[in-house]
Amino acid sequence: MELKNLVNKGTLLLGSMFVLAACGANNAASDKKEEARMEETTAMMKETTEAKMEETTAMMEETTEAKMDETTAMMDETTAMMSEMEALKDGEYKLESNADERGWAHSFTIVVKDGKITESKYDMVDKDGKLKSENEEYNKMMEEKSGASFAKAVEAYNKGLVEKQNVADVESVSGATSTYDSFAEYAKLLLEAAAKGNTETIKVEVK
What we know:
The chain is α+β, with helices and mostly antiparallel strands and 207 residues long. It has 2 domains: 1-86; 88-204, Sufe protein. Chain: A (Alpha-Beta Complex), CATH 3.90.1010.20. It has 4 helices and 4 strands; from the N terminus they run αβββαααβ. It has helices at residues 2-86, 136-146, 150-164, 177-196; strands spanning 91-99, 105-113, 116-125, 202-204. The chain is elongated.
């Protein structure tokens, strides 16, 4: 009887060992699968990160190149303008317009000497040849209305062109922007003529 009990116990013990061994094998297999999944996930994350980095780098390079091209174009344009200014031909250049609806005509003269603008005379004249800048009544009214008289504005614009040698650098006087617009437009025409050495009087039409 005791022998039979021993045999039964041995059988149970052996069975338990087989079960434990099987569980251990299953656990090992599960660990390997989990490890494989982690490696796969890591590889995918690495691949995605590298792709994003490459895409970002490409975008940065493209943006940088575009900005460089834009900057180069602006520098070339500025250089061209400077070259044009340096190439002004000596002489006296004039611009005239017809009278506007109020009876005033534009009159603009610049003098170039040694390739530089030495004189700038922009004004408006009536049919009798009287200058708008010398019309005290009109200039007083304009200054009271807008804060700047025509006389002070054209004085600043003429002085600015001689000092700066570039229309774009002449600052607009507050309250006299329409006067500045006409001055700047006609100054550019005169500088174009001076660059070519064309001293024929420029005629412009105004309403």
